[in-house]
Specification:
This protein is an alpha+beta fold. It folds into 4 domains: about 200 residues, no CATH class; about 90 residues, PAS domain (Beta-Lactamase); about 70 residues, Helix Hairpins (Orthogonal Bundle), CATH 1.10.287; about 140 residues, Heat Shock Protein 90. It is about 60% helix and about 15% strand. The protein has 16 helices and 12 strands. Strands 6, 7, 8, 9, 10, 11 and 12 form a 7-stranded mixed β-sheet that branches. It has a 5-stranded antiparallel β-sheet with strand order 2-1-5-4-3. The protein is rod-shaped, with a radius of gyration of 46 Å. The N terminus is likely disordered.
């Protein structure tokens, strides 16, 4: 579907006039130039009447007036043609009616059809064929024919020869001119209609192409992955905002790929030589991976390429979500059934330990059983927490009261010595969050921090401060720093550096933070490890 936009000036013009090609307007301007030439010719004929013998000197005063009017008309038509405020059809009819009247007057005062000036009207009649409506074209040809017949009748009356042979030959010449007018106008009209149909088709195709280009640009901009179209020399012909975001640099059109991303430019050069269509690159920040795919624009790779840039972390995260969703549905149904056997196994292990008494081997075996029961129970709890991450019960939580109680509970449950965890809270901070979600996020983070810290005084620092309209809760431990490659995978499900861990703790914390409109990330730290939970501050 095409969309035609008309300006206020075009609103007074017929729809047909909007589709006339420039060649039609040029023809009308050339006709007006011919009109200037005729006006000057008639003026010269009047000046040199005795030598040229074209016009009747008896009517010289009136002919000067007619020639002046013709010249002024040509100037006025030039102004109208320059502005194009009046439609093509209207200007064409006005000009041709003026030509018919003026030229007929000159024919009459130059001796009638015998002067041969009637042939001059064939030029305006050729222009009459440019009108899109056949009846208007026929009207103009008929008007010129009637003007010739009327002129012949007036000429015959002036000569007083109403029955002579000269009158018959004069009417014959007028009739032949009329036939010529219709013939010239008809042939010109057929040619003009064919040109007009082609012009209208070209305009519609241009509008369709513009509309498709606009739609394509919109679609490309809204794609979830980056797109760059490269020319033969590696210049960027087209790109979307996602490409700039993923590559981490602005990409001006017609700039070379080397100016933006030399590594990608090197990959493109290698693709030209080897044809390897895909590769993996690190993103600009070095925190993720980008998959690069190259496709030929034509049969030859040298003609250009389409570069597709995809964020592998998003693809991997989507795949992980699908896997965990299926796992969550499965384990949620089996969790209660698994807990019952675990409870029975744990109870049986305790009974065996009591019966074994001082038997060291039996005690060691029962501890192995109980440790694995605890680990399996943690795994079940983590998976159940994952399936409940979207069940939020938001409330306003005052951190002044929440955090001290939370730390006291954590120290008692995890047997943490006093002074290992230091609390630093800015007074009066409040957050809208699910209380159980916030409890589990901080619990998972503190458990990891306690596992890797030195367990000396102030080995762990839990702080809460306001930064603008955001609240930041940070948990720092003085253990070893986290390498960059490990930071990229910390929040992946089932990834753990501890053999006894489930690998779901940080992933669950990330998902719960996201479910409450917050953000959880690992902050780069030269010494130790720091995790930051950011959320909207309530005032």
């Amino acid at each position: 579907m095409t969309i035609a936009i008309r300006t206020r000036a075009e609103a007074a013009v017929s729809p047909d006039d909007l589709l006339f090609p420039d060649s039609f307007w040029r023809s009308l301007k050339q006709l007006n130039s011919f009109r200037f030439f005729l006006a000057i010719f008639f003026g010269a004929s009047l000046l040199f009447t005795d030598s040229l013998h074209v016009l009747n000197p008896a009517y010289q005063g009136g002919l000067w007036l007619v020639a002046g009017v013709y010249l002024v008309s040509a100037v006025g038509f030039k102004v109208l043609l320059a502005s194009q405020k009046l439609g093509f059809s209207y200007q064409l009819v006005m000009q041709l009616v003026t030509d018919i009247v003026i030229i007929t007057l000159f024919i009459h005062f130059s001796g009638g059809n015998n002067s041969g000036l009637g042939l001059v009207l064939t030029v305006p009649m050729a222009a009459a064929g440019l009108h899109p409506k056949t009846r208007i074209m026929l009207f103009l040809a008929a008007l010129a024919s009637l003007a010739m017949l009327l002129e012949q009748a007036l000429f015959a009356l002036g000569q007083g020869d109403l029955a002579g042979g000269d009158m018959a030959s004069g009417y014959l010449r007028a009739a032949m001119l009329s036939v010529g007018f219709f013939t010239v106008a008809g042939i010109s009209h057929l040619l003009a209609k064919a040109m007009l149909a082609s012009a209208r088709m070209a305009v519609e195709k241009e509008r369709t192409a513009i509309e498709l280009e606009r739609i394509n640009a919109k679609v490309i901009q809204d794609l979830p992955y980056g797109v760059l179209v490269l020319g033969p020399e590696g210049q960027v012909v087209l790109h979307n905002q996602q490409a700039e975001s993923l590559l981490g640099c602005p990409v001006p059109n017609q700039s070379t790929l080397m100016n933006c991303n030399p590594e990608l430019a090197s990959l493109w050069q290698g693709w030209l030589n080897t044809g390897n269509p895909s590769a993996i690159l690190a993103d600009q920040a070095g925190a993720g991976r980008l998959r690069i795919r190259l496709r030929e624009l034509g049969p030859d790779r040298g003609e250009g390429a389409v570069v597709i840039v995809e964020d592998m972390s998003e693809l991997e995260q989507e795949a992980t979500h699908m896997k965990l969703a299926a796992l969550g549905r499965l384990t949620a149904n089996l969790a209660h059934e698994i807990r019952n056997p675990l409870s029975a196994i744990n109870h049986a292990s305790q009974l065996l330990r009591e019966d074994a008494g001082q038997d060291a081997a039996a005690g060691r075996l029962t501890r192995i059983i109980e440790d694995n029961v605890v680990r399996l129970n943690y795994l079940v709890e983590d998976v159940l927490s994952l399936s409940r991450r979207d069940r939020r019960n938001l409330e306003i939580i005052s951190l002044d009261a929440f955090l001290p109680d939370f730390i006291a509970q954590f120290e008692q449950t995890e047997s943490v010595s006093q002074g290992v965890i230091e609390l630093e809270v800015e007074p009066g901070l409040k957050i809208e969050f699910d209380r159980m979600h916030l409890h589990q996020i901080l619990w998972n983070l503190l458990r990891n921090a306690y596992r890797h810290c030195s367990r000396s005084s102030r080995a762990i620092v839990l702080s809460a401060v306001s930064v603008g309209d955001m609240l930041q809760i940070e948990i720092y431990n003085d253990g070893p720093s986290i390498p960059a490659d490990m930071r990229q995978r910390l929040f992946e499900p089932f990834y753990s550096t501890d053999r006894s861990g489930t690998g779901l703790g940080l992933y669950i914390a990330l998902e719960m933070a996201d479910a409450n409109g917050g953000q959880l990330r690992c902050v780069e730290q030269a010494q130790g490890a720091r995790f930051r939970l950011s959320a909207k501050l309530q005032k």
